[in-house]
Amino acid sequence: MIAYIIRRVLYAIPILIGINILTFVLFFVVNSPDDMARMNLGMKRVTPEAVESWKAERGYDKPLLYNAARQGTAQLTDTIFFQKSLKLFQFEFGVSDSDRDIGYDISQRMWPSLAIAVPVLLVGLLVNITYALLIAFFRATYIDTWSVVLCVVMMSISGLFYIIGGQYLVSKLLHLVPISGYDTGFAAIKFLILPVLIGVVGGIGAGTRWYRTLFLEEINRDYVRTARAKGLSETVVLFRHVLKNAMIPILTGVVVVLPLLFMGSLITESFFGIPGLGSYTIDAINRQDFAIVRAMVFLGSVLYIIGLLLTDISYTLVDPRVRLS
Amino acid sequence: MARREWSSATNAGRVVGLLFAVLLLLALSGCGERAWNAPHPTREANSNTLFSSFSERPKHLDPARSYAANEYAFIAQIYEPPLQYHFLKRPYQLVPLAAGQVPVPQLIDRAGNPLPADAPADQVAFSDYEIRIKPDMRYQPHPALAKDADGAYRYHRLTEEQLQGVNILADFPETGTREATAEDFIYQIKRLANPRLHSPIASIMGEYIVGFNEFGRELVDAGGNGDFIDLRQYRMAGVTQLDRYRFKVRLRGKYPQFVYWLAMTFFAPMPWEADLFYSQPGMDKRNINLNWYPIGTGPFMLAENNPNLRMVLSRNPNFHGEAYPTEGEPEDGENGMLDDAGKPLPLIDKAVYSLEKEVIPRWNKFLQGYYDTSGVSSDSFDQAVRFGTGGEANLTQEMQERNIQLATAVETSIFYLGFNMADPVIGGDSEENRYLRQAISIAVNFEEYISIFLNGRGVVAHGPLPVGIFGSRQSSDQSPEGINPVVYDMENGRPRRKSLQEARALMAKAGYPNGKSAKTGRPLVLNYESASAGPDSKAQLNWMRKQLNQLGIQLVIRATDYNRFQEKLRKGTGQLFMFGWNADYPDPENFLFLLYGPNGKVEHAGENAVNYDNPEFNALFDRMKNMENSPQRQQIIDRMVDILRHDAPWIWGFYPKSFSLYHDWYGNVKPNLMANNTLKYKRVDPGTRNANQQSWNPPIVWPLNLLLLLLLASTVPAVLVYRRHERSAAR
């Protein structure tokens, strides 16, 4: 397995370089270093000298990908791409274009993101699995039919609708929790109830349908018929056999998203004023802060690769038949 | 066996339910008697604290760099420049803040002889501003000023080990203070010249302050690779310390607008200790620098700096003291604006600003009473404001029931439709093109624009100078000078927009009868540059197209992003575009320079975005800019505005009108569009606020109970079906 992991890590390097190049090209197709300088220096009384000076200080005065003025390897290394990207592989994210340390900001902002993402994942899993089991139990009845209809309706509604509707109903009409905001420690709980609730409710449609499919697939297998033939009750069949075997795709599906929980939710964090990494990324895009955008895309890619690797490993843990080679 | 499995599942459900209940109790336990949806801690809500919001993280809090309104909202309460604007008096009037009095420049000729104050500008070689600052102004408690028992600075030689565990400024246990002196003001002027800091006013100060540019070059030569440079060791020729409380700034020529700059935080004192403290290794890595942790002498200090969540200003214990103004406008007494006259400032202890990026939560929190004041977005405008038959803005019934108050003010800003004067079709000085611009000026109906797209929040402009700026003449003045005769006729004492027939006649004179070229017969096609391409702006762009279509002109919308839009302006490749300007200071020079030839954007990278260049206008501007406000200056301005109206390089557009709402427990609200340091005058009544918050936000729990009941009720048929299922034979 260790050889497999090493191989996967090595595979990740060209993938990350490719992602970096793609991010770099996409960003600079839209923004030039001059645009970035002007965005940071403000709208008024910006002189060309100030723009040049800003670029020179931050290394944006070099060519983007190829430096024809240099010789040898410097033609590739003395470029914005090389200078800005190499340190990412050492997880040195550098300083944002507004002079803040990105690594520090990420370390501060990942906790609020996790404070929402982890409860949404756990509570969502509990609710979705419970509901899916219930539907599976009442399969081929009106409960099943109407539940599927409900799930399709719920998954068809925009996430934004859940947020605005939830804020309107729970906070504005019923006055139960604050409409937005955040705090530290236990004081954060009252701010988290609504976004977590909305996150869970918003995920019920897609989640339940997915788990229902998994359960129904298992329910029709031979070992389930054997269990029933042994005289086991439906509850035992569902909880002990169906759920256990359906846990393999559930677990792998969950493991792959675990690292990405750090990245936060773009819309939820923005609407609820949660200072997480999702809103950090959105702000950076709006401000054309390439340093942060690049760091967040890189981090997201690394976490996604880790997630896929963990998924593969988790397969071997939950299903002894799987061997990594 | 089956029963045990079911039972364990049920137990697990109970445990989860119990946990949830405990969490909910924990969450709401802090609420006490307060409403459940209260976002602020009880102690803060009961204190003399103002609650407001900000929508965008400030970029810089360094007074040498900050130049945006959302940054000034914080630093103007912390830093004290020599001057400030009187809170109540109009027109805007400069009064001392850190200075003892408003400085009067001593004019000097080339031979070094003093000149009288009214000496013509061409005789003036230098202007000396002697500024005497108030004694006993002390800095807020700050670790940069902390000293040990031996009098040595406690945190000026920090090692990485000592910085372990330090994440924010408050992690330094000891603080100190000292008196602000003339040296600190000079130090800050030197910082403005430091090329590393990219001060937005470096270029303009370089034009005037003697030795400013040379000082900057000297610093570049000094290098330093980002290390601390003790600016005290370098001399700026035009800035001299006279004694502990006096310093002199020498300007080249005559520049009466300099006093307005002295009212901005760019000129607030900066202790060298802070510069040294923040430049130590390891500080930037922790985001501990002047950009995020100000140090000032003002009434407030930044007690909590979390730009991702909230910013808290608290009373500076070392504040030297200031009193609420005892004079104002005649109506201020009746409006209660002088009730606090003579009281020591600040009137509040703390101000909490929460980050609210979205309009809906911000608006709802204001309605719930959790923010003391709010702007009015387009989405909520109809809910808050309705216009009376006379066009006056009134609050809706819902707002009145909550005793919400409305404050409006015409901003010292202008939005205009610019013609690129460097363009051969629409620009230039030819009579035909002038007719074309005049015709378009008549056709683009900004009264309609204000009504449709701004909910009436604007005043149609007849010239470049907004209300409240010296030299401005408005249509409401009922004087002919207040009317743009190119676009309006005076009818019954009121301006009436000229008819489209008149505009079409001008089109014919321009060589485009019915919008078609008299020479080629082809329709006139113009390009409109827009920086907004989203669905929200589609209606505005269509409206603009329709306006020009009335003259037969085909308008091509070239929507792009803001970067490309700016690039087109810089290169002069656009034809028509909408642009704006917000006053730096209340002087006509700050608006008329937008049309001064040597300020052209294409040739000189200046702020004259339309590249207008009229020799007569330029000459008048050169005379006007150095004059004190006087009838002679007004006369010159009138002539300049006449030239502009005739040449029509802009369609004058509108002056935006700000609408802000505030609760009745929030006092001393008078819009002051020039002053940024008005927080110290504000008053809150926490008792009334708490009572209203309680009565407006009672928790309504019956829907939750109903939902629970429905869930319980739905389990009954489910259990019945389950039992029937279990008893049925295998299928």
Care to describe what's here?
Chain A is mainly α and 325 residues long. Chain A folds into 2 domains: 2-90, no CATH class; 110-318, MetI-like (MetI-like fold, Orthogonal Bundle), CATH 1.10.3720.10. Helices cover 72% and strands 0% of the residues of chain A. Chain A has helices at 2-30, 33-41, 48-58, 74-77, 80-85, 102-137, 142-156, 159-173, 189-219, 222-229, 234-257, 266-272, 277-287, 290-318. The termini of chain A are close together. Helix content of chain B is 33%, strand content 17%. Among the domains of chain B are: 55-334, Dipeptide-binding Protein, Domain 1 (Dipeptide-binding Protein, domain 1); 422-524 and 583-656, Dipeptide-binding Protein, domain 3, CATH 3.10.105. In chain B, the strands form 7 sheets. In chain B, strands 12, 15, 16, 17, 20, 21, 22 and 23 form an 8-stranded mixed beta sheet that branches. In chain B, strands 5-4-6-8-7 form a 5-stranded antiparallel beta sheet, with helices on one face. Chain B is α+β, with helices and mostly antiparallel strands and 731 residues long. In chain B, 41% of the residues are buried. The longest helix of chain B has 28 residues, at 2-29. Chain B is built from 23 helices and 25 strands. In chain B, α13 (431-443) packs antiparallel against α15 (500-509) and α20 (615-624) packs antiparallel against α21. Chains A and B meet through α2, α3, α6, α8 and α9 of A and α1, α5, α10, α17 and α23 of B.
